[in-house]
Design a protein that fits this description.
30% strand; single chain; 109 residues; 4-stranded antiparallel beta sheet; 6 strands
Length: 109
Amino acid sequence: MPKFVTIGYGDRAGYNRLTAALREVAHAHDEKLRRDGALMGIAGPPVQLRNPDATGLETTDGAFMSSSLPVAGFAVIEAADMAQAVRLLSLTPCAVAHGVVEIWPLQEP
């Protein structure tokens, strides 16, 4: 089955706008995705890695890209196609808490 990488963006202000009932629905939905095999996690501090021409490793703390919302978490899910992936992620906390979820299909090399 195809795999998809997801990136959830959201902030505490958007999360706090949700009713307690909708928060519970969103977290229960994430838990179901985990039980069904999704690999999910909250984003920690990033490190950029470079090794130009394999001549020397360079690392820099911090994200390479920026957005108006911080990265909140990542997941790898399986779905039959993009439409199903969208349906599976439609109730995740970032999607309902005034954030956004990017869905990237993983293509085998």
